[in-house]
Design brief:
single chain; mainly alpha; Arc Repressor Mutant, subunit A; 2 domains; two-stranded antiparallel sheet
């Protein structure tokens, strides 16, 4: 739920925050959801029109698919959370001038559990 300012007005969430909330609601279920279903999943604090607008933006970005065979206007994610995160990581590496240096910085910030999982994925052994 959005926080409030000292004057009691709700703080506006950024489009990115709202998109993330809608995607999280879609990832939390195996079925396509209508805008009203997503609105309910988010606790009803967003207006129906806001949810619909966010879905249109996500659809235009290729992040959600509209279910044309099922209920009219139902949406589902185009990619799961892990796929979307990996894609964002690849894009970030591609934008930088030195992807190896970026990877080195990334790896130094991993928790021991994450480091162990990465070593396992790469086929190496953990010390």
């Amino acid at each position: 739920m959005a926080g409030t300012t000292p004057r009691g007005r709700a703080e506006r969430r950024s489009a990115g925050e709202l998109e993330s909330e809608v995607l999280a609601a879609l990832w939390a279920t195996d079925e396509a959801l209508t805008p009203a279903g997503i609105q309910a999943q988010l606790g009803g604090d967003l207006a129906y029109n806001t949810v619909h607008t966010i879905l249109k933006r996500l659809h235009d970005k290729g992040l959600v698919l509209r279910d044309v065979d099922g209920r009219r206007g139902a949406y589902r994610p185009a990619k799961n959370a892990a796929e979307l995160t990996a894609e964002a990581m690849h894009q970030a590496l591609d934008r930088g001038p030195d992807p190896i240096a970026a990877l080195q910085q990334f790896v130094t910030g991993l928790s021991p559990e994450e480091e162990h999982a990465l070593r396992d994925l790469l086929g190496g052994s953990s010390p």
